[in-house]
């Protein structure tokens, strides 16, 4: 799909991967709804997009609320005429040794999996209604491709995103809607701050952590490559971008 002139929604667009994706899309001529629960961060992204000569608007969105997700997609239709691209990126991390303490494991499922399913459902509904097809990209994680003892619920949620997205490959033929997943290794975003600033500095010096722009490049690739449906794009520091085939 050609990106120029298309209407898009990016959840978690206020920072990190989401912000990088918004800027990459507007640079290529897309018009973007920046959907984020953090209004200040979201509006900062809108301002950055404007400085690049792009078009972006902010929509406050708590992805655990169906009405907020629906409102973000409606915002794209209202401002840009149609919704062509949905990047369901908002998520949280953190350890969740739920066997030892209740922790926040239910919230991890709500945001990292249930909200992605709900957003995909709503985006498909709107794209089918308009009849023009589209592209939906869901943010999973490298952890979604294997176990993680320190965060089993996070691993389960991201594995769910991977297989959910794969399972919707049939939509490409049924209604010209391509659903794909992206699986990045550790990325230098606010979520990575839990590692501590000194550890982050070490990783940066060693070139052992991805930049948000690396993931945004993968998002662009998945949008532009019309052959990709139900695809899983793994992005790592050493391996770069490669598709998972098993």
Short description:
By secondary structure, this protein is α/β, with parallel strands linked by helices. Helix content is 45%, strand content 18%. The protein has a single domain, classed as NAD(P)-binding Rossmann-like Domain (Rossmann fold), CATH 3.40.50.720.
Secondary structure layout plus pairing:
Blueprint: E1 7-11, H1 16-27, E2 31-36, H2 39-51, E3 55-60, H3 66-80, E4 85-88, H4 105-130, E5 134-139, H5 152-167, H6 171-175, E6 177-184, H7 197-206, H8 212-224, E7 232-236, E8 240-243
Parallel strand pairs: 1-2, 1-4, 2-3, 4-5, 5-6, 6-7
Antiparallel strand pairs: 7-8
**What is the 3D form?**
globular
What share of the residues lie within helices? 40-55%
Give the distance, in angstroms, between the N- and C-terminal Cα atoms. Answer: 25 Å
Question: Helix-strand pattern, N to C?
Answer: EHEHEHEHEHHEHHEE
Mean pLDDT: 95
Q: Structural class of the secondary elements?
A: alpha/beta
Q: How many DSSP E strands?
A: 8
In the CATH hierarchy, what is the architecture at level 2? 3-Layer(aba) Sandwich
